[in-house]
Amino acid sequence: MAELDKLDVDLLRLIAEEPRAGVREYARRLNIARNTATSRIAKLEQLGVIVGWRPQMDLAPLGYEVTSFVHVWIAQSQLEATLGRLARIPELIEANTVSGDGDLLCRLVAHNNSHFEEVLQKVQQLEGVQRVRSEIVLNRRIWPRVIPLIEKVRSDM
């Protein structure tokens, strides 16, 4: 584990629970100086534990009601170039290299099934893409979360 102590983990939990609370509020709740909270947050960013401050969003109210996971097989030695081409598709919101089935696991969104088919065809037609396999999400049951994991790390300390 990175160079973290219980204060770092407690701070992470607060940030995960209420990312908009601000440094002053984190310091107050942890009963530490504001400068301590600021330096600990900077340390967590430097260690790569905190990688961004983006809000978690449901894209359905923006008209993207279909979410899918797409396995993509890439031609040998074409990964980086193909990733560049994939990044130009706005509906592709995440791509991860994976072991197992395919080379990439991508998350795509679309307005409806017809639009999803269009986006999937764009992916299939990209140079470097050999094949794809898709799975449409019917309902998100558990949103991305970290608090249970932070609690586990804290209890293991």
From TrEMBL:
Pfam families in UniProt: AsnC_trans_reg (PF01037), HTH_24 (PF13412)
Superkingdom of this protein's organism: Bacteria
UniProtKB keywords: DNA-binding, Transcription, Transcription regulation
PROSITE patterns: HTH_ASNC_2
Xref: InterPro entries: AsnC-type_HTH_dom, Dimeric_a/b-barrel, Tscrpt_reg_AsnC-like, Tscrpt_reg_AsnC/Lrp_C, WH-like_DNA-bd_sf, WH_DNA-bd_sf
HTH asnC-type domain sequence ranges: 4-65
The protein's name: Lrp/AsnC family transcriptional regulator
Organism: Gordonia hydrophobica
